[in-house]
Amino acid sequence: MLMDYDDIVVGAGSSGAALAARLSEDPDRAVLLLEAGPDYPVIAESPDDLLHSWVSMGPHDWGYAAEVVPGREIAFPRGKVTGGSSAVNGHIALRGTPEDFDEWAALGNPEWSFEKVLPAHRKLENDRDAHGDFHGANGPIWIERPQPAAWQPINRAFYEACCAQGYPEVWDHNDPRSTGIGPWPRNRREGVRISTAIGYLAAARPRLNLTIRANCNVNRVIVENGRATGLQVECGGMVQRLRARRITLSAGAINSPAILLRSGVGPRAELAALGIESVVDAPGVGRNLIDHLLVFVAGTPMPGIPHDPAVTNPIGIRYTADGSREFNDMQMYIFNFFDPKVAPGLNLDLPLPSVSVVPGLQRPRSRGRLTLRSADPNVPPRIELNYLDDPEDLRRMIDGVRLAWRLMHRAPFAAYLKEIVNLTQEVVDSDAALADFVRTNCSTIYHPVGTAKMGPSSDPLAVVDQFCRVRGVANLRVVDASVMPNIVRANTNLTCIMIGERAAEWMRAEP
User: Fold this and answer.
1) Residue pLDDT, tens place only, 346-358
2) Euclidean distance between the first and final Cα of the chain, in Å?
3) What are the DSSP E strand ranges found in 431-475?
4) Domain count along the chain
């Protein structure tokens, strides 16, 4: 085996980059951060798609596919670059609600109550737009909101239509009780997406005790006598072994459980069928896969409308679905696609130019799963999202599509639309037809979580304890979206960064 480290963090994404940066603040701790994709140490060397696009799923993508409903598969992009999905996402910097984190605590994880996680949320953010003790102003992640003067005319018209529909005006969507229409908080500064690679790693790179190695794909964790002692890693065409006192998987809700499974941590019978020797019979690994889903209601704009291609998603609604008892269990986006370069590699079946109103389910009840197709680390896992399996998910999405339809026909927004291209009044009026429309057109918001969830020992599907330690294997943690016991009703990037911050507190306190 090669050089020993105190900590090896696998995955330089939203959680992993934050974790490694915080651990390396201790000069006596040798930290190695491994990333399967490329690394761009300075902004001047970073490709434009990582900095200025709305979303990028081109060269910095794992190339995964997922089954959304039985028999229907879609591309399922995940970031493969330092910064991970925080470097390619839509840069919405939204927090979960207090109810989300208090639910985690009630499930047997008291260290994750809203009161306990709020300091980590404040620590990560530099939010100069908001005020008061609820927000932080000195953290690594810059957060700003598109000012009304910068909204496109079509966005302003959508805003006014939402107000006419009865939605309250909101300035700070991250206020715990806010609901309604307003600008999305974004991890973006002067047009540049502030990923964790920029926000956290840039300042940490000069530290001699932090090593960042790109293009290193982790095959498995080496477990000896019940303890994680190292990793088997493929780098530069060579398979090598690394040693460390502690191993942390921060490879995301798809790759972290896949590494666990290849390491022998997972359902014993499934591993045996693939020829993998069982280390810990952990039936929850890969289960409890949860993702936010959306449906595009797409239209074409009237000709001659002024539009800046860089401003595609400045505002949106957080709202509660009709008949729901869960606060803010839905979102509504407006996407203006006038230029394909704002979303490189994202193959949406939409006309150009287009304007779409897009409902998104934030509290899905359906659960999917992830399994291995092969013990070969170069074979992608099987991802079954199982959208709409719960009837309440389908009901709320039908309600959301009908709301999108109403907004697209309400003044003054309706005057900006030439036609709606993928939906008709006849379909809207039929529950059965609209259910088929949702099943045929639903897609992902790129927020998979829950595949190595935290929980008490009484929960047979809990993979880690509330301190993110893998049960049954000493010195091994999972610190990323995998550990969420339920999904937050918000875009997940800030929650993943917060998880990295929270885990770093405990890990730095350990001897």
Assistant:
1) 667 788 898 999 9
2) 24
3) 443-444
4) 2
Residue 174 sits in the same domain as residue 117: no
pLDDT exceeds cutoff 70 at 94: yes
Taking a C-beta distance cutoff of 8 angstroms, is the pair 417, 302 a contact?
A: yes
pLDDT tens figures, 358-382: 999 999 999 999 999 999 999 999 9
Same domain, 316 and 211: no
Q: 234-261: buried (b, 16+ CB within 10 Å) or exposed (e) per residue?
A: bbeeeeeebebbbbbbbbbbbbbbbbbb
Q: Are residues 393 and 324 in the same domain?
A: yes
Beta strands in 125-269 (DSSP E): 125-127, 141-143, 180-183, 188-189, 192-193, 210-213, 216-224, 227-235, 238-249, 265-266
Distances (CA, A) of 384 to 73, 74, 451, 474: 9, 11, 12, 30
Quick check: is 303 in a domain? yes
Return the minimum-mean-pLDDT range out of 181-190, 321-330, 332-341. Answer: 332-341
Catalytic residues: 447
Domain hosting 410: range is: 147-183+293-363+388-441
- Please report the pLDDT score of residue 128 as a whole number: 83
pLDDT tens figures, 245-277? 999 999 999 999 999 999 999 999 999 999 999
Q: Are residues 430 and 302 in the same domain?
A: yes
Indicate whether 267 belongs to any domain: yes
